[in-house]
């Protein structure tokens, strides 16, 4: 019997329309004459979904008794007995009720497929097993119901039912996904715009990987070796050398420029095991690749270019990144083209990036002035030219010798000396001049084959020849020195410009200067150490304590350099080092000034708060104090002449004013304790419903002013009951004050993961999102000019109290207008044991 096909409708979140699409497809199949049944569909109270079921055959559900409760489940046996052509099975990740034949619904689906029944099903991306940890990081909710990736991947086809996050939130707010009592909590928790956007991207990427796997299978089945660049896939070739990190970061930047790109790093090791790399460097590079979201691979092959290209083709790579060869020109000339050139020739339609790096000579280092004008390699090459060119020239001239050829013979040897001088400088040219003079005397000046000169004029000619050769070599040597001096001057100018630019840029200037100093003077490590021993900045290898160069950077720091030449800086290098040190001192001074400026801004803010406090105290504290003084003064002045009614009124005025004054002073003291970090919090399990009802009672708000939507199943939170009630009173009073007449304030509770939320929702004028942070500033009454409403400390205190209880107080926009204050606290079952916490 042919196994049934599986068709999966994948969604990023509940409510995108998977079930609706599944039922719509069922209707289309039924209209086409296909035998379709509804095995199980969950409508979740959605009228549009329920309407789509009408007219489709439905297999009755099986009723199962579980722990005293009767629950409905898909009747697997009934569906098998009905044997339809297509079965519609909703929620593939569902966990069956205890007592069912299979633990999971996807196992039921596998039985249906084994019976030859095609299945159309739905699943959300958060239920795919391999994505559970990623989804938990995004949403904060651990997924207990999952489907193995292999089950979903076995589907043919997998279709994405997509809906833009703003549209999904609009559907949710309109009540098309969840009942009204769950809308606010859902919008502010799982269905946040950022969560939905991340889940949508996760679904798209997972489906793209699945499509890519299908493409690879198709190419393998049909023997297609050419690359189909459907997505950007970058392969970085690693040798185990120091350039690896540079290549990896370049490849990562290429990947980042294209959505859905993939980074792969590969190292080719020899089949004989003799080609070795630095294991520590490879391990570090592997960790870097994985931290950048890429993958590391190792292949075996003696022909490195062929192995690299073959690997790139096998993964359908679009680009290949290799480093510039570390070999010198002479080695390249002797051993032929390097790996990079061969890879470019054999890559075909794969783009190849050849990246320079420090190991290839790309690092900025000041040219050396001390020592010979030319490098040791150039001088050796000059001697080689003299030793090989001299005998060859002698053999040629002897073969063509005639009595009249002495002049051309001399000029030929003179040319050889000039060539050697141009190649190797002074000492190879002197060697070539002396050897040429002796050779001319021995082979071309009579008497031949002796070093004896019979004619004094010939001896003088030989002396002039050697002198001319020496002068030419000296001129060449001086020109080389001048060229290198000019190159050195340009390098010094570049270094000084970089140093000055680093200081002017400000941010990150100190690490940049330390790195520039290490590179410029050819050191292997450098660090800037403060006077207290703290390392301010470091670059390169760790500085060894046994041997390094120390330079004072003012009284506050020391620059330490170490390397093979750290004790051999010449005078010009010392002067440049002094310039770098001076700029470092300026950068340190600039950093000190920035810290001082930051401290000054803090002091200015403190002064602003103090001024606000004095301004508030001058009015808001004076008013109740003046009323109390006037009432008590009236009592004293009138004495027994007052009747009982007037006396009671004056006493009531004094009592109310003193109560208001006490409340204001208490708020000021609480703000001071919060800012000083001396707020005492006694945490214990608190029932949210009791706290909310206590706050409502304290404010004297009736049923018409407050609407409660409490989650009865919510666990107690870990909180200080006194502080929690004060937070609720402040937030609820603020919401009631700004709500339109006749519109009640809504209070709802819900839980998400290990946190609980109390939401106080009003439909007043609201606050612009960009000013949400201002509502928690002390002495702020946004849009409120009525000084009788207090000092503007209520929300500032509420935020401090909530954070002292390890929670958060967050303002949000109310759908349809208004402000929602969310009080988030940890559940007692998931928090620290009961105790007293000072915060």
TrEMBL record:
The chain crosses the membrane at residues 380-400, 412-437, 457-476. Residues 616-829 form the Histidine kinase domain. It is found in: Cell membrane; Membrane. It catalyses: ATP + protein L-histidine = ADP + protein N-phospho-L-histidine. Signal peptide: none annotated. One of its GO terms (molecular function) is protein histidine kinase activity. Its EC number is 2.7.13.3. Keywords: ATP-binding, Kinase, Membrane, Nucleotide-binding, Phosphoprotein, Transferase, Transmembrane, Transmembrane helix, Two-component regulatory system. Its main location: membrane. It is a multi-pass membrane protein. Pfam families: DUF4118 (PF13493), HATPase_c (PF02518), HisKA (PF00512), KdpD (PF02702), Usp (PF00582). PROSITE patterns: HIS_KIN. It comes from the Bacteria. This is histidine kinase.
